[in-house]
User: What shape does this take?
Amino acid sequence: MVQKYQSPVRVYKHPFELIMAAYERRFPTCPLIPMFVDSDTVSEFKSEDGAIHVIERRCKLDIDAPRLLKKIAGVDYVYFVQKNSLNYRERTLHIEAHNETFSNRVIINEHCCYTVHPENEDWTCFEQSASLDIKSFFGFESTVEKIAMKQYTSNIKKGKEIIEYYLRQLEEEGVTFVPRWTPPSIAPSSETSASCKKQAVASAVVPDAALKEGLSSETPGHPSGVPEPAAGTPDDKLDADYIKRYLGDLTPLQESCLIRLRQWLQETHKGKIPKDEHILRFLRARDFNIDKAREVMCQSLTWRKQHQVDYILDTWNPPQVLQDYYAGGWHHHDKDGRPLYVLRLGQMDTKGLVRALGEEALLRYVLSINEEGLRRCEENTKVFGRPISSWTCLVDLEGLNMRHLWRPGVKALLRIIEVVEANYPETLGRLLILRAPRVFPVLWTLVSPFIDDNTRRKFLIYAGNDYQGPGGLLDYIDREVIPDFLGGECMCEVPEGGLVPKSLYRTAEELENEDLKLWTETIYQSASVFKGAPHEILIQIVDASSVITWDFDVCKGDIVFNIYHSKRSPQPPKKDSLGAHSITSPGGNNVQLIDRAWQLGRDYSMVESPLICKEGESVQGSHVTRWPGFYILQWKFHSMPACAATSLPRVDDVLASLQVSSHKCKVMYYTEVIGSEDFRGSMSSLESSHSGFSQLSAATTSSSQSHSSSMISSG
Assistant: This one.
């Protein structure tokens, strides 16, 4: 398996030419890199105008590996080939390196680039990526992988440090400026020439294509394909300073995981990218296993979208019963700057709240609390000038009794824990449980199996008045913000709770209807797609040039998306016959509208070429209708293409087919029709560009012939 690594953008607040002068001092050897023993120049090229400098070196490395492993491998040193291509005209340096030793067993590729900062031409950006593919190594494959990861981590940490060391060295020698390259036709002054000779300029690595472009170009500009890093902003790429300021101290490998998962989301979930802090939470919850973090995060994104959780703070007002009797609220912050949430669980009538509101209303309220917590973490990060990504929860259990162990109440609590654990990982920084009574172990036994091990380690439990002693509350919360009901001097505005009047209780039927209403308040619908049973929806268009828009996620399996037009309406599906075209399943409805007697081309026509959508993909798009009539949007099961009789099926095909269990797919979709007179954008832009409906696979392409505009993203 190929391991890939990607560093954040590192920004040097120095001009490119000065950075190159510092970089050149690393050769032929660098005392700051103990394993870098020596290097020999294999080949070198300089263009006549001095704009291009390409140098290839053979580097001798003393890898920090066990002596036994070196003896088994029969080597003392490892050799790498490094090709540096420096383009002074474009002000870019690309470095490409690969291992020469054991290249038939281990393949290591590394690419680095120095470029001018896109927003400040006097700053320089640096990026580094690498890949490792260990095919075999005398049975020591895992050991070699660990050694390679250790070396990579060490190099990343030292990279900027070394450049800054040589910058200081240059400054001590009186070199603080290196002039930019100018074409030979512009003769520099003698003073400038002397300055240029005094200050050696480094060489670096650029791909051959970029080299050719630099040789042929006459005007400055960024070479094609070179990414433009951004400094201090998460909008494009992540830079190291931004990570440290807003996300915290991460190891190089953790940075790599964050950047790679973020890049994947940018490519596959256009318009729906979670904030960097939230991506990092999912990675931390899965010990930076990218595949596991990606899986749970995609599930969470689908859940948030379906239930409109992103808008809960703006669109949902808690019932008055919750405002009066839910004994919890935000209260200042702890000593680490984390927002502090106080919950007086012992004073809260959980049975009364469940009877008066139902399980779903309580869950939604807890979700709004978590959303508010995320917002407060962002605010505190700005206020305290350091990353704050979690909050502290103080739970006072005084008054907890057997009434709190009422079975439906415990069931609601377990469900809330399950939802919060799945969608708000690593948001709880610390949980302080105070005044735990004798009945608490019973409650703890019920709920602890549903709490993640990492979360459980953040629990601190105090019985009686133990929280007032050493190692107690004062270790975590400043004295001046300790609530009055815990013996502090700070007035706490958290409601005191109390018994919910029975007059507010609702019947089971009322609660069921209310629960259904709460969680069906979504613009999205779910549907199941079976092999041989597509899901279809009908849209009637009265005026030509209306715009049909859609947004759907493929939650399970692979599907084919089609759009058809018919002059006559299909018959509605029959629900009472054995051959009914409508199926209801737990995962959503399945409706078939196109009569099996209909013939394509006679009774209905395809207005766009089919679009194949993979599991996890998110598709947004629009279609400008040419004719009035009936349009059918269809999601159809995608079967794997049959392999030729003379060839064996590919492993990828077999694995893909196994993932689709029982020939069933699931989609979650939303559609809308916008009349031509209501469309506020450019109708011609929809008709003529950003479409290529039949050729979309991972990004939007364009076609001047299509009347649809669609964006697809895999996730």
Observations:
- The first strand starts at residue 2 and ends at 6.
